[in-house]
């Protein structure tokens, strides 16, 4: 009987893992599970959609033929709600449980929304996926003021792109350089997001109210592994793996930005995640 391998994720590390497996095992039954509705795409290029340089098709990295040619069953728009290492199966939202012999967690990192009252209102978004970028793109034409909360190059590039569209932008953080049309706001973090169902304004620590129709959070990320909370899989700022990318559970592996080596943090970024995934897939087949 073919070995059943399930990969949680559908980005660089997950694709690398599937390719690594197929180099050594042509018969294993591989299933990939992703919350997104897209085939694998190049995440580092997402902002190109927002500034008009790229179209969605330009981001596709592995299209439908990849999954077909590699004998991969792909579940899109499927959320993993839990993992049972005792029963060797995943609990999936809206689907029957999925059984596995070997599990690879390659779910990456995600932007973390702060614990602020009203953060779940429509118009509040953390930039995690192409769907988030498309949401921003669709709502910009009717946005009068956009607030960007965060730090780092992605947050600042978002501010630059949106301001270039003649939309008012307020940046809650510290800019590396002055950006035309972007107002920098320091020392007044948001304590509440106001509005009924939709965002209408935010309240700051000095009690000042600032109007807004979009609030974007970018820069505060953590490993995407909430579905492992009821397991015995060791984690410390990420899933802890050994030199062959295996966790403390012999049949559970991890790759990419969701994990970290025992001694030092695994490399971050697209290329590092892909290489980590390939290594994981190959090691799984050799041990």
From TrEMBL:
Cofactor field: FAD
Any GO MF annotation of the entry: oxidoreductase activity
FAD/NAD(P)-binding domain location: 3-266
SUPFAM superfamilies reported for this sequence: FAD/NAD(P)-binding domain
InterPro entries: FAD-bd_OxRdtase, FAD/NAD-bd_sf, FAD/NAD-binding_dom
Matches recorded under Pfam families: Pyr_redox_2
Keywords: FAD, Flavoprotein
Family listed: Belongs to the FAD-dependent oxidoreductase family.
PANTHER family named in the record: NITRITE REDUCTASE [NAD(P)H], PYRIDINE NUCLEOTIDE-DISULFIDE OXIDOREDUCTASE DOMAIN-CONTAINING
Annotated protein name in UniProt: FAD/NAD(P)-binding domain-containing protein
